């Protein structure tokens, strides 16, 4: 430790290892021109002595915060959405020198104000957006400011930007076909609020399937994926309480919580899945597999989406990206034998 200093520095590491300070600095940054063995040894010594980069000095020197901001919109649609997203982003940043900060943005609030605050005050080098809308004002603002970002979900802007999305249209189309194969003649799906991009993708896929199969359908206008569980449960009970003889309902649930709500309500009035109605559910966890192993499920890998978004943003920040990156994850279907 340097005399009179209580905080280890790169010079401290250099003195311990007999290296030049510039070599230590490049090794800590993961410079591939520094031998892998040297990088590992430097990292080991840095950890042992408790070295922490002086981010204030780094920012003055480079103009970079070495921070990625996640604008997280908490919601109950998919179990563990936030945790899975954070896990994937954290994995993507390992060894990069970047750290993740999380700013929650709640439905009904001003979701552009936190974005402007981060950009105007230089609190992050890049942002990750969730719950993207067709004409998302956050995206518009960041494009205008030329501020690096990647979104979870697409927009309808003509100007291209980087995103990671899920093929909700194919999910809805394949799920509807599955329910038709199970003998359902009336299908229903609870959609997200209008304005979210995946609302239109889900609707496109659903309508394409029911029209091709000539099936009757119901899209509720009183509940959405953001409705509380009691509202969804009451809607499902009312819908099936008035069903006609010969109707076999099939539900497409774009998240676990909507399924659990409607299933609880229908069970309370004596109806049983697989007998009185069918369901296909989009999941992000193994919870429903444990609760109901015979349930038809479609997996959306949120953790991998976070990983891909982190890697995409890092490539934008280090200048290695080759233009705009637009990735659409495909559904993983797990349909049970009948």
From TrEMBL:
Top-rank lineage group of the source organism: Bacteria
GO MF annotations in UniProt: DNA-binding transcription factor activity; transcription cis-regulatory region binding
HTH lacI-type domain span: 8-62
This protein's name: Transcriptional regulator, LacI family
Provenance organism: Cohaesibacter marisflavi
InterPro entries, A to Z: HTH_LacI, Lambda_DNA-bd_dom_sf, Peripla_BP_I
Keyword Hydrolase carried by entry: no
Chloroplast in keyword set: no
Keywords: DNA-binding, Transcription, Transcription regulation
């Amino acid at each position: 430790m340097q005399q009179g200093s209580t905080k280890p520095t790169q010079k401290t590491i250099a003195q311990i290892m007999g290296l030049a300070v510039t070599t230590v600095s490049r090794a800590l940054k993961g410079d591939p021109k520094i031998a892998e063995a040297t990088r590992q040894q430097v990292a080991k010594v840095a950890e042992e002595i408790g070295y922490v980069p002086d981010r204030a000095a780094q920012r003055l020197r480079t103009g970079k915060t070495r921070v990625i901001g996640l604008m997280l919109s908490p919601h109950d649609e998919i179990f563990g959405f936030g945790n899975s997203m954070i896990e994937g982003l954290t994995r993507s940043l390992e060894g990069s020198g970047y750290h993740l900060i999380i700013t929650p943005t709640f439905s009904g609030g001003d979701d552009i104000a936190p974005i402007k605050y981060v950009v105007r005050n230089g609190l992050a080098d890049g942002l990750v957006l969730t719950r993207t809308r067709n004409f998302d004002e956050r995206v518009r603002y960041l494009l205008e400011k030329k501020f690096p970002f990647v979104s979870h979900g697409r927009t309808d802007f003509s100007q291209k930007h980087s995103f990671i999305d899920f093929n909700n249209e194919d999910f809805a189309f394949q799920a509807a076909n599955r329910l038709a194969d199970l003998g359902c003649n009336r299908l229903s799906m609870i959609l997200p609020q209008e304005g979210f991009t995946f609302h239109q993708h889900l609707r496109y896929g659903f309508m394409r399937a029911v029209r091709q199969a000539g099936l009757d359908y119901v899209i509720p206008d009183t509940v959405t994926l953001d409705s509380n569980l009691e509202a969804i449960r009451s809607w499902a009970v009312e819908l099936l309480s008035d069903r006609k003889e010969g109707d076999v309902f099939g539900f497409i649930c774009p998240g676990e919580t909507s399924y659990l709500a409607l299933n609880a309500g229908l069970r309370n009035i004596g109806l049983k899945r697989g007998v009185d109605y069918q369901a296909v559910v989009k999941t992000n966890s193994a919870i429903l597999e444990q609760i109901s192993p015979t349930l038809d499920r479609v997996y959306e890998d949120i953790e991998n989406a976070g990983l891909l978004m982190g890697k995409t943003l890092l490539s934008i920040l280090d200048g290695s990206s080759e233009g705009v990156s637009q990735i659409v994850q495909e559904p993983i279907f797990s349909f049970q034998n009948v």
